[in-house]
Design brief:
The chain has two domains: 3-136, Jelly Rolls; 140-221, Arc Repressor Mutant, subunit A. The mean pLDDT is 84. The protein has seven helices and eleven strands. Helix 4 (142-156) runs antiparallel to helix 7 (211-221). 23% of the residues are buried. The protein is α+β, with helices and mostly antiparallel strands. The termini are far apart. Helix content is 39%, strand content 23%. The strands form three sheets. The chain has a four-stranded antiparallel beta sheet. A four-stranded antiparallel beta sheet has the order 2-7-4-5. Strands 9-11-10 form a three-stranded antiparallel beta sheet.
Length: 224
């Protein structure tokens, strides 16, 4: 069952499914103590980023959201203490499309269509695995974390390689990486300069790296 196509068609005839387009910096979804969004969303195309609000009230990037990723999964629960959830939002990184579902509508289809239920379960499990995996390297050095995240961003964004050379989209900047790693821009810049000296980073704008050297240095620094 091609349920993505099915739900696209459903968006034409019911308000329980909305098919929306987004561009760079558009807020696709927001959950906060003041604004509890009850929708559940699936990204169809393009890239977005989950941002969380830090203790200073600033939105910082937390995770790349890519095609067929789900957001708003907390809305599947009936007894979750939502006031304990961190404020977060989904923001567009480029142009794309998404589906937004009414919770009750989606639950009905999950109960009658095993393929949809399995899809939701798989995506939810992946989200939980990502959370635990992030903590595995929480005590690692900033140098290792930067290399690790560069590798992961390349995979999440499904970027092509040309003889091990990877060019990142223009929105992957030093400022973006600083927010992603909860570090200062100056510290990230220092690490980037070191990587340039090692010929790991070939360019900053756009960010261009040698993937083979990223892997080599990443392995060497893993236990620093």
């Amino acid at each position: 069952m091609d349920f993505i196509t099915f739900f696209k068609d459903e968006a034409l005839c019911t308000s329980d499914v909305r098919h929306n387009h987004f561009t760079y910096k558009d807020v696709l979804f927001e959950y906060s103590s003041l604004k509890k969004n009850e929708d559940i969303g699936i990204l169809l195309s393009g890239d977005a980023v989950m941002e969380i609000r830090n203790s200073k009230g600033v939105w910082v990037p937390n995770k790349i959201i890519k095609s067929e990723d789900i957001f708003g999964i907390e809305n599947f629960a009936t007894d979750i203490r939502k006031n304990r959830l961190a404020d977060y939002r989904i923001t567009g990184l480029d142009g794309g499309n998404l589906l937004l579902f009414n919770r009750e509508y989606l639950l009905i289809h999950m109960s009658t269509q095993p393929e949809i239920l399995q899809f939701i379960l798989d995506k939810t499990a992946n989200a939980l695995v990502d959370i635990t995996y992030i903590h595995r390297y929480s005590q690692s050095s900033l140098a290792y974390k930067l290399l690790f995240e560069i590798s992961r961003l390349m995979t999440d964004l499904n970027l092509p390689t040309n003889e091990n050379i990877v060019t990142f989209p223009k929105y992957i900047t030093i400022t973006f990486l600083a927010g992603y790693l909860r570090s200062s821009r100056n510290r990230i810049l220092e690490e980037i300069i070191k990587l340039e000296n090692q010929e790991v980073v070939i360019s900053r704008k756009p960010l261009v790296v040698d993937l083979q050297k990223v892997k080599q240095v990443c392995r060497a620094r893993q236990y620093e």
